[in-house]
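Side project, low priority. Logging it here so it doesn't get lost.
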Amino acid sequence: MIRCREILFAAVWVAVTAFSSASTQAQTAAIGQSAHPYISVHRTTPRTGTPWELHLVLTRDEIYVPIGVRKPEGDGPFPMILIGSGQGSDGIGKIDEYMDRTETLMTRLVERGYVAAFVSYRNEVPGFYNEIAQAELLDDTVSGGNRTLRSVPALDSDDHLAIVDHARGLPYTDPDAIGAIGSSHSGEIIMKTATAGGGLAAGVPSEAAATEYLAMDTSKAPRDAAGTELQLQDIEVARSIADKARAMQRIREVDTPLLIMGRDDDHLQGIFALLYEWLSEAGKDATWASFDHPEHGYALLRPREGVTVPDEVQEQAFELYMAFFDRHLKSH
């Protein structure tokens, strides 16, 4: 097993070296130690030259997923906020893109004394969260030895759990002060992590597309004229296709304080409101806020066409969730 691990690291090192050589940015790579050994590559953002680290994080089925990390000066320990948007896609390419697109947010977090990381995962397998149990490693009873086998296929939500483990094990983070903010599918993944007892001290699911988490039968959902986009603005329509018993079984396992953020005219606003309603009904530490904004993912302060700085609504949202994070990640 040790020899296999050495070969795996050698292969990853070759891939990282090739990736670095092909880039115009000056980069160096090293193996670090967190919850598990990981590859770290020094990179810079293309527009401003801001330095950051690309980490390749070992997942529960022993593959690697990329995250981008920025930290304050000093040794810490610092609280840390994980940032996610949508689904996993494009590997390192997505991290490069979003380290640039969320640079305003990440800079503000670092200035406030937080480690900030943009995270990604493998592609989503639609519907599998409701079909299989959480992935585990099992003893290999087939070929013997000290190998392990998968109990079920690992999902993108398992990758998020591994990323939280990685974050908690970094030498400069406070393991009891890891938070997460996620937009759209990444907001739903925060709910899955909270249900699994994943070690988050606070979470902000923003515009969380929690169709799987609430066990919704989306085949019964109304759609737009093209027949593609779900139309679940109304909480009662969302309620009518959700499996409350199954959803509440999950919600009862949540101990993480949550700030659920909606968007007034979003086509999934009914889902966001229903998630908050059922969390409150279960007596969980949950807060609701909704803002009127034209941009999906507004909470991440991403620039939109023709606008390079956050607008007034984005600033209000930022101050709200940063007060939430400060309360839960800096006051313990």
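Brief comment: The chain has nine helices and twelve strands.
Revisit when time allows.
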